[in-house]
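Review this chain:
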Amino acid sequence: MIIIKDLCKQYDGKMVLDGFCCEWQAYDTICLMGKSGQGKTTLLRILAGLEQADSGIIQGMQHKKISMVFQENRLLEGFTVWENLYCVCQNTAQKNAILPILEKMGISGWAKKPVDILSGGMQRRVAIARALLVDFDVLLMDEPFQGLDVHTKQHIIQIIQDMTKDKLVCMSTHHKEEALKMHGKVIEMTKNSIYDI
């Protein structure tokens, strides 16, 4: 179980997280919703260890292997799709999984192409494939489906669900339909409350 108690974070005197509290099971899918500036990205970055909270407690994340899809694709420009995935591989099994996961994403035909020439939606799929390729206990995703059309989005959501069974998934989104399709528990950041959908 992941327990978050009284988490606070401010930037330049502006409180972004103010006493945030929540409890998640290790296999939950959590969907953070709320307007921009309500702390969704900040919470994800704190969970990923990229930021430090000003105060508060997070229990249960110790020794967890974390993978993340950022708002930006953060791909290696000038390198191929395959090379962008290869660079995160730590063993032979992951290297052998590169083409299969690209096939699932529908972009295996672009494996030897530089990511620079891909459309925004295709680059997004590469970023998601990279995050799913590594070994993880927790998958953090910051607005992961931006730039994807409705059909592609549904396909990618199904892939994520298939590959994250018994994993904790925490994603931010502005779109309730994405949360509904992910079958997640919604946290409305503006109200700091949680309810099942």
Remarks:
- Residues 54 and 151 are 41 Å apart (CA to CA).
- The radius of gyration is 17 Å.
- Helices lie at 40-47, 81-86, 92-96, 98-105, 120-133, 150-163, 176-182.
- Confidence is low (pLDDT under 50) at residues 191-197.
